[in-house]
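Support case: fe (ii) ion complex. Customer-provided input:
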Amino acid sequence: MKASRTPDERQVFATPFGGGLAKTDAMDAAHSPMVLSAQRVASAVLGRDELRLAHCKATAVAASRVARQFDPEMAEALLAAAWLHDIGYAESLAATGFHPLDGALHLARGGWPDVVVRLVAHHSYASVLAPYYGADHHLAVIDPVPGPAAEILTFADLVAGRDGGGSTISARIDEMRARPRSDDPVPAEVREARYRLLERTAMRVLRSTPSGSNRTDHPVELATFR
Ligand SMILES: [Fe+2]
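Agent response - structure generated as follows:
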């Protein structure tokens, strides 16, 4: 059973597009050619991995809910990166074995905008894990994107839930913490440190969202991406 959502978390998940929020650049961006292209690439690469694709879709939806302060270009890049952030899990893209980097390398080869490549490469504090996958030297030559876009991607990655069904921040981190780790090269204390970073960042983003909805029964609204 999922943990209760805070009022701010409920707001992120409760309001369908056009159902109370002002129309925003982020919502327009959801239908931009770049974001639709990202959706197609994610679907093609992750097509057989339905749960991961659903997670990516929900990540894009959650990001669009809170990405209201961006200009259209950054909103597009953020939503594209949300769709694409986990494509590096696909076996067909495996190069280094570190999924943020493998995804980013694929996108760079495909000519995706630099900011999308950088968001994917560094999503959700990838740099903390990279040394344990032998990927830190590669990642070090890709600059992170400073500012709120990367933070919103971190938030959206969490609240999308593992299967795209939505999650609270705390429930998602608990779920990550409880996963079997027999072949994980990352030491437990490093994993814990990353969870704290994820939680702190996601809570900061959450606190920046408007609250007020009492609807708790509405899952992530996906209609805009269909
Ligand atoms: Fe993810």
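The radius of gyration is 16 Å.

Case will auto-close in a few days if no follow-up is received.
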